[in-house]
Amino acid sequence: MAASGLQRRKIEVLLDQVDQLPTLPGVAHHLLPLLVAPSPSRRDIQFAIEVDASLSARAVKLAIDLGRPAESVRSIDAVFRSVPLEALAGDLLSLEVMDESTLRDLHMAKLWRHGLAVAIASQVIASRLGTVSPEEAQLAGLLHHIGQIALATVMPKAYAQVLEKNESSGGDLLEQEREVFGVDHPVLGKRLLQRWGFAMSLQNVVWLHRQAVAPAAEHGSGTLLPQVVRLADILVRQQGFAYPPWESVTESATEAAERLGLSNASAEQIAHQVVEVFEMNAQPTGLLDEPSKADLWPTLAVANAHLGRRYRAARAGEQASQVQANRAELLITLNGRLATCTSARDVLQTVAATARESLELRVVVPYLVGREKDYVEGILATPDTAGEHFLYAINSHEGIETLMPDAVAATLLTVPTRAERIEDWLFERQGPRLGEGPFFTVPMIVEGAKVGGIVFAFHGPARDLTARESAALTALAGMAGVALKRVQAEADLVMLTEELAEVNRELQAAQDERVRQRNVASMGEMAAGAAHEINNPLAIISGRAQQLAGTEQDPAGREMLRTIIQQAQRISDIIADLHLFARPPVPDLRTVDPIELAQQVADEMAAEGTPAQLRVDAPEPVPAIWVDPQQVAAALKEIVRNAVEACSNGYGGEVTISVQAAAGEAAVRLAVIDSGPGMAPEVRARALDPFYCGHKAGRHRGLGLPKAYRAVQANGGQMAMESAPGRGTTVRMIFPVAAGKS
User: Fold this and answer.
1) CATH number at residue 256
2) Is residue 37 part of a domain?
3) Which single residue of 66, 396, 624, 668 could bond 738 by disulfide (Cβ 3.0 to 4.6 Å)?
4) CB neighbours of residue 317 within 10 Å
5) Chain center to CA of 731
6) 566 and 617 housed in the same domain
7) Cα 706 from Cα 521, distance rounded (Å)
8) How far apart are CA 32 and CA 291, in angstroms?
9) How many CA atoms lie within 13 A of 166 on its CB side?
10) Is 661 left (phi over 0), alpha (psi -120 to 50) or beta?
11) Phi-psi category of 508—alpha, beta or left, where left has phi over 0 and alpha has psi -120 to 50?
12) pLDDT in tens, 106-142
C-alpha cells in the first residue's frame, strides 16, 4: 500500500534526525585515546573504524562531504587514501556514545557483533569469488544493517516494542517495523545512505540484502554485492551472530551459495573461518568491552578538551578570513544553495536562513503544503531559535481554503501582503512565539498553483515593505517553490522505486503461496484417487492373504503372508493420513479453555510414559479460544510428541507447554518449547513438508507435523517454528479468542 503524504513526511523527519549514529562505550573507550595521541597511528585508527558500522559510515560521509566522488569511496581504505588523517581524527573526536538503557534494552552489543561478523564473512566470500572487491564487500557487510541502528537509536522505545512483539509472536520483522514506523530498516537505511550521498552499490546492499531475488529494475551486475552480503548474513546467523538474537534463518545457505556459484562445502568453510577470526577483530578494538561510566568519563573529558582546542583554533581562523556578503549576493547564491538541497526540509531551512541574512528579518516562517492537502510543514525562525521544524496535520475545517487558494486567488497574491488573516492557522498555533507584528506573507506559486509560502516580520517599529524588499522576497519565494517541486518529484521517484520493489516481493510471496495451495489440492486429488484405485486392490490382497494364512501349514509361509497383510494395512494407513492432510475435516468450533486443553495433553502424554520432563507453564489466566478442541488437542499432542522424542533421543531435558495471552492481538499463544538438540536450517525449512522426516528412514511417515500445521490453519490459527542446532526447538501457535462468539 502506498504511503500517505503525511506518512512520507514523517519518514523524512525521522531521517532528518540522523546526522550521526552512536557507537558502543567500549569502542569509544578504545578509539578516543588513539585520536588524541601526539602521533596518531593510521593503522590502529583504521582497524578500530573497520569493526564499527557507525564509525565507518561517518568516515565515508566525511570523505564525500569533502568533495570526494561517492563511487571512489567504497571502502575504508579509500577513505584513508582521500582524507587527511588529522581531519578524520578531528571529526571522530565528536563521536556519540550510546546510552546505557538503549544498549541494554535493545541488545545493541549483539547488533554490533552481527554487523562485524557479516563484514568478515562478506570479505571472505568476495575473496573466494574474485569478481567483487573484498574491501568494498567488507564495508558493505558492515553497513548492511545501518537502518536498524538508526531506528534503534533515534526511536529506542518504539523499536523496543517492535522487538518485543517479534520475540513474542514471531512473524516478519520488516512487516512489524513498517506497521510502527511506516518504513522498514532496509528502506530507511537505503534512504539514509542516499541522503548522505553514498555510492549506489552500497545503497543497494542496504536495501536488497534481505531479498533472495532483486527487483527487475536492479537485475544485472549490481545485484552481485547484495547477494554476497545476503549469503554472509545467513552464514553468520547460523553461527549464533543473529540480531534479533531469536530471529531464525528463513533461507538455506546452500541456495544462497549456489546463486553465487559456491558449493555448500565452501559456505561451511567460510562460516567456520568467520568464527575463528571474529575474536581477533573484536577484542582488540573494544567491541566486547563494557566500561563503566567512571572508566569512560576521563577518556571523554580528554577528547572533549582536545576537540575544544581544535574548534577555537578553527573559529579564530574563520573569523579572520570571513568576508561579509551583501544582500544581493545572498539572493544570487540562493539558487545554488537550493540546487544542493535533497529534501523539503533542506529547502525550507535554506530559505529561512537566506531570508534572515539578506533582509535582516526578525521572524521568518517558510512553509509548504502537502500535495494531498493533508499536512503543512515549515521552519519557524525567531530571535529565540535559528530554525525550528514543524509538521502539522490539517483537516477540512482548518482554513484549507487559505492554505490552498484557487488559481484566481493565487494570481492576486503573487506579491507580499499582510498575513494576520490569510495565515491564521499559523497564528493560532504559534502566535505567542511570533511576537509583535505587523506580519507579511508571500506565496510560493508554481504553474499557477500555491505550493507554500513565507510569513515574515521585520525588526524595529511597524512599517510597510519597500519595493526592493517586496521584489527580493517575491524572487526568493519563486526560487523556493521551484526547489520544493523538484525535491517532491525526486521523492516521488524514490518512493515509486521502493513501492515497485515491495510489489515484487508481495508477488513472489503470493506465487509461493499459490504453488503451495496447488500442491495441497493435487495431494487431495491424488489421495481421493488413491483411496479409490488402491484401497480396493489392497482389500483383495489383504483378504486373500488372510485366507491363505488360515490354511497355510508351513510356518515360513504363514510369516510371509502376515508380512503381506501388515504392509497392505500400512499402505492403507498412509493413504488415509495423506487424505486427512490434504482435506482436513471441518472444525466443530466452540469455546475452549486453552490452559485446560494444554493440561489435558500433558496428562495424556505422561500417561503414555514419556521419558522427558513435561510441564505446563500458565502463570496467568487467559481468555477462552474459539476452536475445535479435538483437532487442536491432536495437533498439540503431535507437536509435544515430536518435542519429547527430540529430548529423549540421547539428550534428555524437558518440554514445556506455555500458555499466554498475546497482548493487543485478541489471541492466545500456545508454545511448545524443548531443550533438545535443535534442527539444522535445511531440516527446519522442510519440517512441515509431507513425507519429509529428519529421522532415519522407516521410523516415521513424515506426516505428523504437516497434519498438525493444517489443523491449526483450519481452526483459524497461525503456526511458526524456531530452531537452531544446540538451542532446542520452539513451536508457537496463535488462536483467536472466543469473545463475542457462541
Assistant:
1) 1.10.3210.10
2) no
3) 624
4) 10
5) 23
6) no
7) 14
8) 13
9) 22
10) beta
11) alpha
12) 888 899 999 999 999 999 999 999 999 999 999 999 9
